[in-house]
Specification:
Blueprint lengths: L8 H9 L5 H19 L2 E4 L1 H16 L11 E5 L26 H8 L3 E6 L11 E2 L3 E2 L15 H8 L5 E5 L6 H7 L2 E4 L19 E5 L2 H11 L28 E4 L10 H16 L3 E4 L9 H15 L1 H6 L6 H11 L3 H21 L5 E5 L30 H5 L3 E8 L5 E8 L4 H15 L10
Parallel strand pairs: 2-3, 9-10, 9-11
Antiparallel strand pairs: 1-3, 4-5, 6-8, 7-8, 7-12, 11-13, 12-13
Helix pairs in contact: 2-3, 9-11, 9-12
Amino acid sequence: MKPLDFISVSELSKLIKNKEVSPTELLDSTLKKIEKLDPILNSFAFLDIEGAKILAKESEKRMMRNSLLSELDGIPTSIKDLIAQKNLPQRFGSKTTSDNLVSADAPSVERLRNAGAVLLGKSTTSEFGCKGVGDSPLTGVTKNPWNPKLTPGGSSCGAASMVAAGIVPYAIGTDGGGSIRIPASLTGLFGIKAQFGRVPVYPTSATPTLAHVCPLTRNVLDACKVLQIISGKDFRDPFTVTENAPIFENFIKEKKSYKIAWSPTLGYGKNDSNVVEILKKALKNISSLGYNVDTVDKVLDDDPVNLWNAEFYAGVGTRLKSVIENSPNLIDPAVLEVLKVAINQKMNDYYSLVFQRYAFREKMRIFFENYDLLITPTLPCVAFETGLNVPKNMQDKNIVSWVTYTYPFNLTGQPAASINAGFTKENLPVGMQVIGKNNCEIDVLNFCKQFEDNFINLNVKPSIY
């Protein structure tokens, strides 16, 4: 049997279709990797081995009948523990929640199940998705395969860790302020936040105007395949995009011309020198492909973090109000601090920030009248030590403001992805963020595929190997 480490969704699908590898063999290989690597990485919150075996056996029967349901049929994956999965707990990385079993799948999980995916269990998350690093009071510290002393980022920490380590080819996470793009950057993956509402969110998130469900993969084509399955309208989500999703894969095959803006700081950020070095090289590479790139130093006048805080932390804090009042000792102290501030804001102050958010969205809409794509660093830094909430040189920042460049595009809802731009001398990944116009995921995916094909070595493995 062909070695099954670091094989893409596309390749695995062909192996299963041709009966060169069976879903049960693939699951056995995956479980061996989990047994070997997860004691180091701590990427799973819950592992449902028996449930996965049942799904793999069902997939194998379909394989033998030549009746596979999709290209994801028989391929193992995981679901972030902010997303509902039937017959498993949903703990949100928190000691404040119960271990009661969920009775129904979220739409994305239901669609994966109907596509034949082998669901391994739930991946770790920071508590309620509130931090950009990979630890929680419930599950402890999740580690980065490129260096287990460092964080993989968050809040989709377990998803990123297991995909980067080659345990699974893709995993499902969420992104309310960067929670897919942050760990994608710090672990060298491709993570895309599609257009807001493209992938339905239900049950309703505590942050309903910011939340996205998204895939983390090792390449762009796999992201297209997964995104295709989980996209599409569901009227239980009041923000659902009602138009049918494009066939994403059809739009990445040929290079298209784009007017691109490059902004190293958006006008307010400050980057580590190693990030600047890698991104400068990436921009030269992009220009060498014939793209028209303008440098725009000041896209924004101010950091919009307060607009984001008002919505995200107020939403989570309101949902947890009784816990905050009665059992604050159960909550991560750093999370508790920002939740208290958010829920204590006055109504007129909150609505002032809401109106500023509308103005911010309009400012970005006007900006994109002149450009097809905006490129920034995904983050101002590379992976840093576990146990820290922010990098050592950014102690003036809070648990989200250090990420700098991701949360603005949750405020607008437009598609944004992080793709690996290269590695530092210490062999740590650096992410490049690519933002598209509203409803234009196909442009983000097309550009990222061209960059990947020309400049990314997908065969590089992390140091854990």
